[in-house]
Amino acid sequence: MRTFEKAATRFFKPLLEVGMVAQPLSGLWLRQCVSLDELAGVNSGLAIFYRSAITGIFANGWRKSVVLLLFSSALASQVVTGNEPHGWQRAGDAETISEVEVELSLEQRLVRAEARLAELEALNAKIDPSHIEEPEIAANSAAPTTRALYGGDGFGFETDDGRFSLTIQNRIQARYATPFDSDPRTLEDLERNQRSFMIRRARTKLRGHAYRTWLEYYLQYDWADPILRDLNLTISKYRWATLEVGRGKVLYNDERKTSSANQQFVNRSIVNDVFTVDRQQGVQLYGNVFPETVADTTYYLGVFSGKGVGERNNDDHHLMYNVRLQWNALGGEIPFSQSDTEYREQPALNFAIAANTNRSACLAFETNQISCRPLPWAPYDTIGEPGQYRINQMMGEIRFKWVGFSLLHEFHAKQINDTLAAPDDPFRRTTMLGGLLQAGYFPHHDLPIFPENLEIAGRYASVNPRLAVNNIRQHETSVVMTYFLNSHQNKVNLQLSHLTLDPTGLASRAEQRLWLQWDLTY
Prior knowledge:
Elements: H1 2-33, H2 44-60, H3 62-80, H4 99-125, H5 129-140, E1 146-151, E2 154-159, E3 164-178, E4 196-210, E5 212-222, E6 227-238, E7 241-249, H6 254-257, H7 272-275, E8 279-289, E9 297-304, E10 320-330, E11 348-360, E12 364-365, E13 372-373, E14 389-402, E15 405-418, E16 429-441, E17 454-464, E18 472-484, E19 490-503, E20 509-521
Antiparallel strand pairs: 1-2, 2-3, 3-4, 3-20, 4-5, 5-6, 6-7, 7-8, 8-9, 9-10, 10-11, 11-14, 12-13, 14-15, 15-16, 16-17, 17-18, 18-19, 19-20
Helix pairs in contact: 1-2, 1-3, 1-4, 2-3
């Protein structure tokens, strides 16, 4: 309504003046072109408005006259419906209308129009221009539309303006294990006969960005072992500095950081459970500096509560600190994904070292409702008191990929300091060692008799707890054949492992384990 009044104030008065001045000059022409008889059924007052508009074209151009014609059309709609203003007369109600009556009627209406324009001008002075623009903005603004897409991260949605996105990805990992599934740590573990079919992993991932493409979110939930595994926000605006806040994997070593969906083997090695720092709740900062130069380096820094993801609060004031430094010697950063499924034509070589320190009741970690875990050997087979164990860890790593060949080597050292133990206690300080070496290759490129998507890989891993009493070394020798139906997103693994336990003062014992697994991500 305010917009109409403003328009009337600005244009209607000049148009009436133009029509009144120009009418005597063009009356003869108008009588020839427009007669009252031709406007049968229309009020005589409307005829005067039309006549004034047409004569106004000759006097002052067509732009202002068009507005007057539009105004007259609105009045005509009232006439047709029988709602004409008081005092207006239909042409059919009188046989003739004299020119004198028309002129008098015009002057009467001009007087009324002047009075109405005065009111509109007074009202216009009180109008806030910002109030007039708001309806136009609301009318022109439309809700952003979305489009569906499917890619490597799953099925997703994204707004056309690119401000919001959501990708949904599901994963099923079905496994057959004989004679047992988990890694043996004691001699009793070798005696298990637990052949099993299982849904080892069943997970849903949600990821995307909100408001800005560099403001990312990520969520992962496990249905087979119900827990919220990951939930974090990431600011990735700058390549040299990315900030991640929430719960997720600590960027410490490749074997743990690489998703189980992108592993070269059916599962991680025997090294993982002993030396992993797993998932934590905290903040990580990482980035790539001096890219594509001989000094190409990626750094990772992290501060965490140090209790895993099963508990909201820390048990004391001590925090976990983590640092990883990676030199990208050839080919830039290698993603945390094993096997050279891309068949890199240029070699990629990364070297990394990492360190982690934490003081808590925990001796190991697992992504579970109870993340703080003990180790399988006495006296570390129970969780300690808050802040009892100061654990310092170091890790060295080499990764290499080229034309279907891939290699991974990790060396681990873990020092456990029992702050409550007596000075002469042999378990006051224990340093555990472990490591793995694995390599894989797609033989089709040299031996076409093998399928193109078949990879054969081997791994050797060992753990030496170095316990002061009843030490027991563990060894793993594994071979795996993997057929990639669609890279890591759809693959079938067959793995055979030879697992050996070597206790101090006793004969070593070994057992074989067979794994058959289908891993599908969609």
